[in-house]
Amino acid sequence: MAWLTEKYPDTFARYYKPRLDYWLERQQEGERFYNGTLPMLCQTCQIPMVFSEPDDPTQTCYRESTYHGMQFHFCSDGCKDIFDGEPQKYAQAWLPVHQIYQGNCGGASLDDVLKWYRINVGADNLDFEGSQDQKNWNTWKGVPDTAA
């Protein structure tokens, strides 16, 4: 956090650190959050919608436009403006998350998709602390097992 604050003095502390602090506080209070859905992707830049609102760094920036009766989602005003200028160019983008929600990857529910990808909930995802992945990593790195 200190490095990011120093490296990006005009943006990190203002826009991103408050969100990270908020989720750290929730975790410390035993309110760990797991997202029950897949990340929404920006139709223009195709990255997950993770940018903060300019006036509230605890809120995700979310914009949308309608084109030919369909809604499209964007991570920022800039991406929305780009789409609105040439919607025919960006409306045709093939986004994996959208394919999943359309049922093209095992089904429409998160459970269906996880089964299709052969992801075992609790073993292949969620927290690193205490997981089999952490145990394997510690073994590979020669870190003693502290759980015993």
Please provide a written account of the structure.
The chain is an alpha+beta fold and 148 residues long. The protein has three domains: 1-33; 35-102, no CATH class; 104-143, no CATH class. Helix content is 40%, strand content 11%. The chain is built from seven helices and four strands; from the N terminus they run ααββββααααα. The chain has helices spanning 2-7, 12-28, 77-85, 87-90, 96-101, 110-116, 132-141, and strands at residues 52-53, 56-60, 63-67, 70-74. The chain has a two-stranded antiparallel sheet. Strands 3-4 form a two-stranded antiparallel ribbon. A hairpin with a 2-residue loop joins β3 and β4. The longest helix has 17 residues, at 12-28. The chain is globular.
Counting copies of identical and different chains, the oligomeric state is: single chain
- Total number of helices: 7
* Helix-strand topology string: HHEEEEHHHHH
Strand order of the largest sheet: 1-2
Class inferred from helices and paired strands: alpha+beta
* Relative helix content: 25-40%
The value of Rg in angstroms is 19 Å
Largest sheet: 2 strands, antiparallel
Taken together, the total number of domains comes to: 3
What amount of the residues lies in strands? 5-15%
Detail the poorly predicted runs.
none
Shape: globular
Query: Mean pLDDT across all residues, rounded?
Result: 87
C-alpha end-to-end distance = 32 Å
Number of strands: 4
Describe the structure using short key phrases:
7 helices; 4 strands; single chain; two-stranded antiparallel sheet; 148 residues; alpha+beta; 3 domains
